[in-house]
Amino acid sequence: MLLTSEYAVLDGALALAIPTRFGQQMVTKQTRKSDLYWKSYDINGEEWFSAQISLMDFSPIKTTDEKLALYIQKLLKGAVRLNSEFLSKWNGFDVKTTLEFNKDWGLGSSSSLTYLVGQWADVNPLLLHFKVSDGSGYDVACAGAELPISYRLEDDTINYTEIEFDPAFKDNLYFVYLNQKQSSKTAVEYYFKKAKQKKTMVKKLTALTESTISCKGLKEFISIMSEHEAIVAEHLGLEQVKQKHFSDFQGGIKSLGAWGGDFIMVASDQGEDAVKSYFTNKGFATVIPYSEMIFAEKEAELA
Hints:
By secondary structure, the protein is α+β, with helices and mostly antiparallel strands. 39% of the residues lie in helices and 22% in strands. It is globular.
């Protein structure tokens, strides 16, 4: 989940991203069959996708979703270009993937799949990502991270580092699902078409990312969120989500990822019950406290 520098991360802005505790699992089993048989299951164990995939060119022979099957084809072809030994033995496979979150949430089903295929193929998942996608790749980096990361694309170089980001006011932070999934591809296209004064935007959001990482108090954090929203709105001609939907909310609200869908981040000192009640009354019942979303928090508890 990208907390800062959405859109501008594509042009070199420093970004803060966090791995969520909700991921995706993949199990592969070699078979005597002549093709790949792929099945995907949702968080409830219900099958939502299947495909029979040719080992000749990874094209779908039969599938329940042609678009997704063609994306898997791109992933497998990209993996073979990076590792010519991958799937070179003409052995069939049964592949099973299982999501740990609602597939409509936009928490990285594609990026985590890219990471998993990269592991299966024994190739760098980020290199695989850039073979098949125009996105920044922060989400693929997060798929393999155990802590929040700072992430930056500079001069064809990917720089990311796991960092300690554990705000003292984390109990005042929440993620709210806006009941609709946004297309990352469409958002990227919009950015490259509409963004104005991108160098200025990159410089400002980089500074705000640094301020976010070092922030010590809730009031300062809310101020940073508000300034971030204003900058992105100004440069992309978008309406801020708080002004559009939640103008009477007591606290800060920031869009995440592709504006207009998926999750928003909320900061408030009103208490969890009050925050959940407010958004539920507005028709947004999925309100997840920060500590229940973040992977690093879960690891710390287990340790």
